[in-house]
Specification:
Elements: H1 13-127, H2 143-152, E1 159-163, H3 169-176, E2 180-185, H4 188-200, E3 207-211, E4 224-228, H5 234-244, E5 250-254, E6 265-267, E7 274-278, H6 279-296
Parallel strand pairs: 1-2, 1-4, 2-3, 4-5
Antiparallel strand pairs: 5-7, 6-7
Protein name: ATP synthase subunit C lysine N-methyltransferase
Main location: mitochondrion
Transmembrane segments: 104-127
Length: 299
Amino acid sequence: MRSGLLPEGFLSWDQCGASTEPFWKRLRERRAQVGVGETTERNSDTRHIGRGHGTTVRAKRDSANARCEAGYTLSMSKVLQGESHTQDILHMNLDNDRSRKRNWGLLVTGIVGGTLVVLYAVATPFLTPALRKICLPFVPATSAQIENVLKMLQYRSGSLVDIGSGDGRIVIAAAKEGFKAVGYELNPWLVWYSRYRAWREGMHHNAKFYISDLWKVSFSQYTNVVVFGVPQMMPQLEKKLEEELDHNARVVACRFPFPHWMPDHTTGEGIDVVWAYDSKAFKGNEKTCSETVQKMHPL
């Protein structure tokens, strides 16, 4: 378009192109400068943000690692403490088991030792007679023997002694018949049992029991004597009774008779046989023998 045809105030194309070229150039340069600045600022911000973000990430990672390490350390500490506590519990259990076993061992030892002591204390009085020169074992009297003894003491009264009374059967039976009965026994267990039995049957006032050796007791005060002897002791006991008993005494022997005396009465059969000896007979025999000896050997 020609410039002459344009209204006033408008520029022609050539004028615009000529006049606008520097403008567009300046605009492009300006845009380029602004773009470089923005890019630089953006890059700067990006670098700044990247550095901050990296720093933050590293900080977070370090913090997380620190927390992990702390947690691991705490966990390991707890694990170690748990293991230590478990070991302490195991040691305590082992100590308790050992203590329990030791206590059981002591208890069993005490029970066994106490049982042996009791057995020894109980058995010794029953076994020691076998070690003596004259053995007088404990053999309980049968019911038939007790009846035969009481039959031989019928119509008699006064005091009675049982030599080697054992469990006290003869003494208690005689006390029930009205005798003032006494029993001598070397075994303390049998004496204590006899006393208890007499008390239980209400005969403790008329039935007495003593722990003593028959060879150390004088029988001169008794008018009735009962003895369950053995052959080895009968000769010595025969001599002792001859010296100590009065002329109105009676001796009842069970199981074995006296070797030199002649019995006045006999009753029973087999092991239940009893022999009754009146002191008048064996005292008279002793006097007769003495007179015969004096006549044969005058002074």
